[in-house]
Here is the input.
Amino acid sequence: NILWNVIHSQPALCGGMWGRTPLAMDAGGNLLVVGAEFTSAQDNWNPLLLKLNPSSGATLARQVFNLGPFASFDAVAVAGSNLYILGHNNPNNGNPHIVYLLKFGPDGTIIWGDSYSPGIFWGTRGGIVVAGSSVWTAAGGKVRVHDLNGALILDKDVILPGGGSPLAADGAGNIYTADQNGVAKFDSADKSL
Here is the structure.
């Protein structure tokens, strides 16, 4: 049985136009939804962050961000009271493809961000996971690792299907990606394949 269904009057692309709908629970037990929302003219879209009451579906917070043309939030990870969101700008109409990682405080303010433009448009898949004191992302043909303060620790070119991969972490802090032909494991000690 469906207990509730939330529909917004503004057309939204939750998870981007490729059908992803990234969900997470925050430290307070609220449901987080990231994606994108069309502008009123429906000629562009902007990143969207929703916080919903898991019991009723009521919207507790709604934020739309202006991060350039055709930008969307694609994946979310929660660590304590902070959110880490992976997103991208789609290279529509000659616009650059930009992959970005943002850290948000519990009130939805951006604490820090980092971005890069892949030399090749690999696709729009991506994943994010927080493991110990590091944030791992796999998007834009790269696996990148940042510390929780935003310093870049690792930037490695990796062939990934659609440019990115979902990520998982085990209890020892090892990271797993869905590679082009299987699964790859990153060792938490030396951050190598």
User: Anything to note?
Assistant: The chain has no helices and 16 strands. The two ends are 43 Å apart (CA to CA).
